[in-house]
Amino acid sequence: MTTQERNFEELRLRTITAPMFARTALRAVTRPATINRTVRLGYATAATSHPSHFSASAVEAMNPRGVEISKAQRIAEDGFISAIGNTPLLRLKKLSEETGCTILGKAEFQNPGGSVKDRAAYYVVKDAEERGLLKPGGTVVEGTAGNTGIGLAHVCRSKGYKLVIFMPNTQSQGKIDLLRLLGAEVYPVPAVAYDNPENYNHQATRYAEARDNCVWTNQFDNIANRQAHIETTGPEIWAQTNGDIDAFTCASGTAGTIAGVTRYLKTVSEGRVQCYVADPPGSVIFGYVSSHGKELGERKGSSITEGIGQGRITANLQPDVELLDGALKIEDAKSIEMVYRCLDEEGLYLGASSCLNVAAARDLAVKLGPGKTIVTILCDGAYRYADRLFSKKWLHEKGLWEAVPERLRSYAVLD
């Protein structure tokens, strides 16, 4: 066979086999494993046949829930801010089986900025606009440990505002770098108590007061933060559970989430839904709530969780603190254990604050007994904390290596 004949034969074989391979690959990637024969035939026709034989209804039949949700959501006409909220409510299968309860996590890591703080970020900016404090080309200033700043960075870029962030220099470098990558001007300052004039919140206040068309959004005491969760997070949880919810729990940082969701659920259920605040070491909230507001105490110790726990009662929490049914103390060891369990058992790559909430939901399930439906907040993913949470060296330094279940220590891949 001549060279020309061989080349022709190779071309002929490629022409024959390439479409066959493509169809086989398409079937392997897209065809569901368990569907009835009638639908499968329609789907195979849609996926592999000539366009004139394409069956859109057969394809839609493979994902009816997704199509239904997409029709309801339509297009996010205002871009980033329109995509905030409406996050899924996930059943945590293993913990639900263990406790005999239905434990559900609100997947706030699916917000476009990656955390629950997208909601507060949008509402505090919107509030400043509506009150005439922020005009086009203005500057937003905030004191934040991370996620609110990241949410604000996205919101401010989408609206054309400059963002300046003051934050404790104890926060992860990953968060600081990300804020700068998103266009924020970041000032890491020494971590000191709130009553110290050099606290990062007070520095943010002074910066804003010294400039025109510049607003300090004041996430801790700006009740627009709380309002975000009264108007969005609470109603979403109620609708997603069809009102079949017995309890809610999450931690308190600014307290916008715990206060706003508690206020809404208590109102709509006429007090039936029980609400518990989860608190890490070093925070005064547990003692304050447990003593029914009689003992505020002093902040002692610290926690590995970032952005939660408090040394005071914020303006966001104050109006609703009496609605809380109790408080749950969650030690760091429980939060770390849950980071690894959620990854291994649920396929969820969550940060320590999220897993503190999950640990609190488990403890609350045990406290309330089987048959209850309990909801918590999955604040964000572990992406911004991986260099700590999955570092053997860091876990040993914090005395938390033993908190990682032995069978799951292989996930700690960083030295």
Tell me what you see in this structure.
With 415 residues, this protein is of the alpha/beta class. It is 45% helix and 12% strand. It is built from 16 helices and ten strands. Strands 1-2-10-7-8-9 form a six-stranded mixed sheet. The chain starts with a helix and ends in an 18-residue tail after the last helix. About 6% of the residues have low confidence.
Question: What brief labels describe this structure?
Answer:
single chain; 415 residues; alpha/beta; six-stranded mixed β-sheet; four-stranded parallel β-sheet; 16 helices; 10 strands; 45% helix
Q: Total strand count, please?
A: 10
Question: Could you tell me the radius of gyration in angstroms?
Answer: 25 Å
Give the strand order of the largest sheet, numbering strands 1, 2, ... along the chain.
1-2-10-7-8-9
Largest sheet: 6 strands, mixed
Could you name the ranges where pLDDT drops below 50 across 5 or more consecutive residues? Answer: 11-33
Q: Based on helices, strands and strand pairing, what is the structural class?
A: alpha/beta
Helix content: 40-55%
Task: Give, in order, the helices and strands.
Answer: HHHHEHEHEHEHEHEHEHEHEHHEHH
Shape: globular
Mean pLDDT over all positions: 87
End-to-end gap: 61 Å
Give me the number of helical elements: 16
Beta strand %: 5-15%
